[in-house]
């Protein structure tokens, strides 16, 4: 069942973020980045199709039976924007990601998230649309990511930058509450559990998967469980 995009949801999310004792990661060896968790409205059945071959979508990753890497049947009601990164990028090519990037000198995480939102998907929003921050997530590739939750105020019209983003999807928040989500697996390379968030016909891994899990747990359900120790798959370590 879809989640209505209304003022009640906006205030629920804001209240949960305001009442959360945010976990901050301080690591001088890592660079600081921010991602935009943009909440927008959507309609059932408006899913689009990536303008790229399926081999580029999965970037050589082995796929489980029944999964093909497509983001289908995910729209409807309150949603967040999810990007498919371009396949020619030097790092994390063709992976699913939230709009974001590293902070410029003397830039705040809010400034960076709003700037990246504008640069990557062509949506410009003011500071007062920010509802709050999720926990920092330290990545294996050398970053500390701060997720910034933003209220879009409607459907909006993403215009992805073709050099960075292949496609932008509106993914209904209800998809985060599927019965088969979240999933946790073990890998020999780490004692920490790897998190997987099933969406459409694919699995979203950390760091994006960890951010989306906290979006569900904290913003929708009011749970304060940590996600910063959840592991990434080995292909995302570089």
CATH superfamily: Nucleoside Triphosphate Pyrophosphohydrolase
Reported CATH architecture: Alpha-Beta Complex
Structural class: alpha+beta
Named CATH topology: Nucleoside Triphosphate Pyrophosphohydrolase
**N-to-C SSE string, H for helix and E for strand:** HEHEEEHEEEEEEEH
The percent range for helix content is 10-25%
Largest pleated sheet: 8 strands, mixed
Strand content: 25-35%
* Average pLDDT: 91
CATH class: Alpha Beta
Shape: globular
Describe the model.
- The protein is an alpha+beta fold.
- It has one domain: Alpha-Beta Complex (Nucleoside Triphosphate Pyrophosphohydrolase).
- It is built from 4 helices and 11 strands, in the order αβαβββαβββββββα.
- The model has no long low-confidence stretch (mean pLDDT 91).
Keywords summarizing the entry:
about 240 residues; alpha+beta; Nucleoside Triphosphate Pyrophosphohydrolase; three-stranded antiparallel sheet; 11 strands; about 25% strand
Provide the fold topology.
Layout: H1 7-18, E1 31-40, H2 54-58, E2 79-85, E3 96-97, E4 100-102, H3 109-121, E5 130-133, E6 137-138, E7 143-151, E8 165-172, E9 183-187, E10 190-199, E11 202-205, H4 208-220
Parallel strand pairs: 1-7
Antiparallel strand pairs: 1-2, 1-4, 2-3, 2-8, 5-7, 6-7, 9-10, 10-11
Short account of what is shown:
This protein has a single domain (7-236), classed as Nucleoside Triphosphate Pyrophosphohydrolase. It contains four helices and eleven strands; from the N terminus they run H-E-H-E-E-E-H-E-E-E-E-E-E-E-H.
